Amino acid sequence: MSSRHLRLRGKHVTGTRSRCLFVTALAIIVIAGLVLRFHRFAPSGSHADPNTPFATLPPGLDSDEAFHTLAALRLARGEIAPFFKIDQGIPAAMIYLIAIVFQFTGPAAEAGRIASAIMGLIILIGIPLFAWRLFPDHAVAAIAAAANVAFTFWFVNFSRIGLEQIAAAALITLAVAAFWEWQTRGGTGRAVTCGLTLAIALYSYPVAYVLPIVIALHALCALTLATPRWRPRQREMIAAAATFALFIAPLALFFFQNPEWVTRRSGF
To answer: What does the alpha-carbon distance between residue 58 and residue 65 come to, in Å, rounded to a whole number?
Structure first.
C-alpha cells in the first residue's frame, strides 16, 4: 500500500472521528435542553391541578396565559379572527396553536404551555440545523447555536410558559430559513414556502412586523450588490409575492379597519 493511500485513509478516519464527536456533542446539548424544558412537565389534561408537578414550575398560570387560553376557547365557538381584541391585543398564531392542542388534550389549562413547548422544540432543533446549513465547514457554529438555545434563560423560560414569544421566535426562524433556501437553491415551491412562512410569522408578535422589511432589504442587496448576484426567475418572485399577499390579507384588512391596534400593544 502506497504512502499516499495511507495518508488519504488517515484523513478519512480523522474526518469520520470528528464528525462523530460533533454529532455526539450536538445530541448531548439537545438532550440537556429537552430535560430543562420538560422536567416536571405535567401530563396533558391535568387542568392546572395544584398537586401536579407542573403547577410548581412556575406556580399557577400567568394572567397573560389565561388570556391566551380563553381566546383559544373562543375559537371553539367559531369566533375566528386574524387578531384578538383582548388585553392589549393578542396576535393570532399562538391562539390557533393552543386551539390545535385542545383537539388532543381537551380544554386543559396547560394547553398554552404545551403549545410553547412544541415551539421551543422547533427552535431547539431548528436553529442548530440552520446554523449547520449556513456554515457547513464550521461545526462550532452549530454547537454554539445549540448551546445558546438549549441553556439560556430566555429560550428555556418561554418554552415552559404559554405566551407567544417563543412561537414568534420559531415562526421567524422558519421564515428566514425558507427565504435562505429559496435564495440558495431556487424553485417555485421554495418561493411559495418563503411567502407563506413570512406571512404566518406576522401573525405571531409585533416584533415580526419588521421582518418583511429586513427580508426585502436583504433581497435587494442580493439582487444588486452581491457577488454573485441572486437571479430568481420572474415566476418565482410572482409566486412568493402572491402567496404572501394572499395569506397576509386578513391581518392587513383587520389593521386597515382598526388602525389603533397596530401600535397599541407596543404602547407607541
So the answer is: 12
- CA atoms of 211 and 91, how far apart (whole Å): 15
Task: For residue 162, give the H/E element and its range.
Answer: none
Burial of 172 (C-beta count, 10 Å sphere; 0-12/13-18/19+): buried
Residue 64: which pLDDT band, with cuts at 50, 70 and 90? confident
Model pTM above 0.90: no
Q: Which three cell numbers stand for residue 132?
A: 449547520
Mean pLDDT of the chain: 85
Torsion, Cα 86 91 93 99, to 10 degrees, reads 0
> How do the domains of the chain map onto residue ranges?
33-163, 164-268
For residue 93, give the C-alpha cell.
398564531
Distance separating alpha carbons of residues 260 and 268, to the nearest angstrom = 10
Half-sphere exposure of 12 (CA within 13 A, CB side): 6
Neighbour-count burial of 17, counting CB atoms closer than 10 A to its CB (0-12 exposed, 13-18 middle, 19+ buried): exposed
Distance of CA 233 to the CA centre of its chain: 28
H runs (alpha helix) in 106-230: 111-134, 139-151, 153-158, 165-185, 188-201, 211-224
In our burial notation (b when 16+ CB lie closer than 10 A, e otherwise), range 94-117 reads bbbbbbebbeebeebbbbbbbbbb
